[in-house]
Amino acid sequence: MNRGSRISLLASRMCALLILLVAWHVIATALGRPILPAPSVVLATLARELVGPLGRHVGVSLLRVGASIGLAMATAAPLGIILGQSRRLGNAFAPFIYLLHPIPKVVLVPVVLLILGVGDLPKVVIITMILFFQILVLVRDAASGIRSELVMSVRSLGAGRRALFRFVYWPATLPAILTAVRQSIGTALAVLYIAEIFATRYGLGYYIYLQGSTLFDYPRMYAGVVAMSCLGFGLYVAVDWAERRLCPWVAADV
Amino acid sequence: MEPVIDPSAEGTMVAVEDLSFAYPRHDPIFAGFTWRVRRGDVWAVLGPSGSGKSTLLLLLAGLLRPSSGGITIDSASLTRPRPGTGLILQEYGLLPWATLRENAGLGLRVRRFYGPDGRHAPRGDRVAQEQISARAAQWLKRLDINGVADRYPAQVSGGQRQRAAIARALALNPDLLLMDEPFAALDAPTREDLQRLTLDLSVEARLTVILVTHSIEEAAFVGQRILVLRRGTNDATEVVENPHPATAMYRASPAFQSTCIALRAHLAEP
User: Fold this and answer.
1) In 3-state terms, chain B is what percent helix, strand and coil (to 5)?
2) Chain A residues within an 8 Å CB radius of B83
3) CATH superfamily of B12-53+65-209+232-239
4) Within an 8 Å CB–CB cutoff, is residue A156 touching chain B?
5) For range B136-153, the mean pLDDT
6) Which pLDDT does position B2 carry in this prediction?
7) Is B36 helix (H, G, I), strand (E, B) or coil?
């Protein structure tokens, strides 16, 4: 991406942000109830809270989501490549994937908490479970879509299994992995909120729930919501950045 | 009676001995097929689609295993892709996510990845990082694609893509080059250009070349000897001798015309 298009991207994002803030302000004013404070109030609260307790909650949530994304990539991507390169293996495992993928993992939150107890691990495991299948399916399809001519050509250069993974399957599926992560960010944050309601005293989910449903401090609750949105936005930007760095051919004009 | 082949004989590059091959649940494509290719020969393999041309090439590349019989290349029995053999396919052989420069260096990177283990790469051919770009650059230049070396395959023409595929194969210093309909997707001037280039390179790099084609004219221009395959089971070795100078003029000569007529007659035989 060149400098000009980067600036225009920034400009369009600022413009969208401005429109959303104005809309929020109009609705809040029209409603005139404490349950929806004006954006100015919320943003002032956010600024105050971030240097205080909220900063730590953001950090904890970021670590949990980051660890989940990393763990899901590290497990689902290799498995997806293995299933995608062999039609027989892919067919054998397809029914398992189609049966397990649609299970709403959120309902398993209490079960996972019961088994893994308190702490960060059960939260990371839940989010990983959701990302896992989305990455697995996309990577498997990307790997099985690789042309046999390409695989044969690279094998003829001396590549065995390991080199095929390194030089063909890994770069061929990397865009699919990043697409899967990008698509999963919204879900991951929604589940993060659910997972952080239980058995923890840190994280944005806990903070939002505490402020909104226990203390009825709406400006603080919305500050948490905005912080969570910023977290999601930051993740999107990070994935886009990773794609530009790792997959320059996707952005190239081909 | 087929001539008995001694695979260790001086000057034999490829010896196919009593080869049989069938795809699962299909009639055999080869049964007791025997063929010998001398070092430095430029062969064309001609036949209609479904005659087993590409299958023969994949067998020679070590990417398919014969049902029975054996293939010996450079006096060594073939069991897996051999480091000294280059393979060029019709299309889709280049990594779409790598520039032509990176593609040209891919074989060397694979060799560096394994080290000189004698299995994936020849023993003694230790490749240094600087060598990869130097050797790739040298072949990109020889094949006249230096100017587009930093583009992706989808950004260049089909002819330039095939040039990059040839550069990638030759960067590994092969002694045998296998080509499967390499120019079939190209327009006529580009195709004739690359046919001539192939003949030039076979002399320069002392290559044995086996080029598979369904085009009579391509077989007659490139092949100094032409193996004709048929639909059904190939059990006899039909060869048309076609010694000729590798110049563009040859295409206009009566010798070229009579080879084409002979090949057409061969293909028309039941």
Assistant:
1) 35, 20, 45
2) 158
3) P-loop containing nucleotide triphosphate hydrolases (3.40.50.300)
4) yes
5) 93
6) 45
7) strand
